[in-house]
UniProtKB/TrEMBL annotation:
GO terms for molecular function: endopeptidase activity; serine-type peptidase activity. PANTHER family: CARBOXY-TERMINAL PROCESSING PROTEASE CTPA (PTHR32060:SF30), TAIL-SPECIFIC PROTEASE (PTHR32060). GO terms for biological process: proteolysis; signal transduction. Residues 261-412 form the Tail specific protease domain. The keyword Mitochondrion does not apply. This is Peptidase S41. Coiled coil: none annotated. InterPro entries: ClpP/crotonase-like_dom_sf, PDZ_sf, Tail-specific_protease. The keyword Acetylation does not apply. Residues 1-19 form the signal peptide. Keywords: Signal. One of its GO terms (cellular component) is outer membrane-bounded periplasmic space.
Amino acid sequence: MNQKLLLALITVMSLVLNACGGGSSLPPIVPKIPKITEPGWLTGQFSDDSIYKDLCAVPRIGPDSNGDTFSDAQGSSMHEKMWLRSWTNDTYLWYSEVDDNNPSPFTVAAYFNQLKTNERTASGTFKDNFHFSQSTEDYNQRTQSGVTSGYGISWEFVSSSSPRRLIVRYTEPSSPAAIASVSRGYELKTIDGIDFINATSQANVDQINAALFPSDAGQTFNFVFTDEAENELLTVNLTSENIELQPVQNVKVIDTAVGRMGYMQFNSFIRAGQQGLIDGFQQFVDQGVTELVIDLRYNGGGLLAMASQVAYMVAGSAQTSNQTFETLQFNDKYPNVDPVTGNTLRPTPFYTREIDWTTSQFINDSPLPTVNLTRVFILATDNTCSASEAVINGLRGIDVEVVLIGNTTCGKPYGFYPTDNCSITYFTIQFQGVNAKGFGEYSEGFLPVTSPVFDDQLPGCTVTDNFTQVLGNKNESLLAAAIGYAETGVCTLQNKPANKPKNKSVNENSLHKSGISIKTPNTILDSIKIFTPITEPTEL
C-alpha cells in the first residue's frame, strides 16, 4: 500500500476512535444557542404588545394543573417588561398618567409595580390601590377550582406590627381549623412557641410567615389562641391542607317582628359559589322570606356576571326586565370597543339563568330562583369590595333600596381582565362600571348614614364588627342591627362612624423588611377581588 495512503487511513481511523470516546484532546462540539435580540426602549414610543407576548426569560413547557398548554417562546426579561409596558399603555384605564420609565434597571415584578398612576383622589387616597400580580398557577387553582392551601382560617389583620393582633373571622367547614374547634373571635398568641404579638427578629418573623401562609399541604405548626382577656382557649397542632372553599355559608331563615328574614354569608364571587347561591335563594323562596340580609363583610369581589345573578335573585324579573345591571367604560382609546375581547361594548344585563362555568361559560336554560324584594340589607366592612359593591350599585340603579349595615365599603368601582404572561397573571385596572342611572363614582366606598344626601351614601347603621358572636347568630352585632332596622326603621344599634383607612394598598403581599411587621396577605388575593366579565355569554 502507498505509504501516504496508509498514513491517511491511520489518521482517519484515529479520528473515528477519538469521536467514539478515545482520549482526544479536541474540544467537544457545543450546539449553538440562538442569540436573543433584546428589544430597545425609546421614551414615548410603543409597539403593539403582541410583539412581545409570551416571549419569556424562562418559557413554560408541558400542560399545567388544568391541562392548559402554553405558547411561550424563548425571550428575555426585557421582552416581558416591554410587553407589560405596551399592554399597560393600550388597556390601562389611566394610561396617560403612567410614567414611561426605562425598563432596563427594573426586575419584571418591580417594573410592573410602578406601571400605574400615582394620582390621588380628592380625599388624598391613591386613585389606584388595586394593582397586583400573582402566580398563574395559584390564580387558576383558587378561582377555577375554589381550592387553596391552608388551615381553613379567614384572618382579620388588626395589626401586622408589634404589638400584633390577628383574629379569626371564620373557618371553612370541615377544614383542619374547624375540626380543631378554632372559632370566630379567637386571637393568635404563639406559633411554635414564638411570641406572635411581640416577636421582632427577622428569623422569628420568617417562621411566623411560613406558618401563617403555608406554601404546600402537609405542613404542621403549633398554634395557641386566646380570648380578648388573654385567657388561653386552645392549643392545637394544625396541618395545612388543600382547602375547598365554600363561598356560601350559614344560610338560614330568622323569624322577626316584621316577618321571615333570610340570611346568607357570601364570601367570594368565584365559580364554586354559584350552586350555593342557587340553593340558598331557593330556600328563601320556599320559606317565604319577606326580608333579606346578605353578609358581604369579607367578600372582596369576584366575577361580574355572578354579581349580576345575585342582584337578579334579589330583585326578580319584574324589576330587572329590560334593565341594565352595569355598563363598562374603558379608557378613551376605546369608547365603543372592549380592548381585551375586541367586541363592541354592550351593557351587562341582569342574568336570569345559571352560567356554565365549567366549559363554555354560556348561560344555560336553568332559571335562577328569586325572592322578588324591593329592599335588601347588606352587611359590609372595608373588606366589602368590587363585585360586592357592584351588587349594591346595580340594585340602586333600578331603585331597589339597599340598607347598609356595618361600615364604609372599600371603594372599587373598577375592574380588570386577569392576563397571563410567562407564568404570572397580571391585574391592572382596565374599566369602570356604572349602573343603569349612569352612576359609578364610589371610589371612597359606600357609606351607611341616617339620612343619605350624596350618591355614595346609603341608608343604614354604622356598627363595629366585634367578633364576639358567630356569623349568622341573630345576636351578632351587624345582623342584630339589620334585624332592629327592619323592625323599627331606625338604627337601634349604632356606633360612631369609624375613620376609613387611607391609602390602604392591596399590593401588600411582601414581607416588611424591617423584621417588625409580619406579612399581610394581598387583600385582593385573600378575598379574590377579581372583577371579570365573562366572555360575552350567549343566552341559549
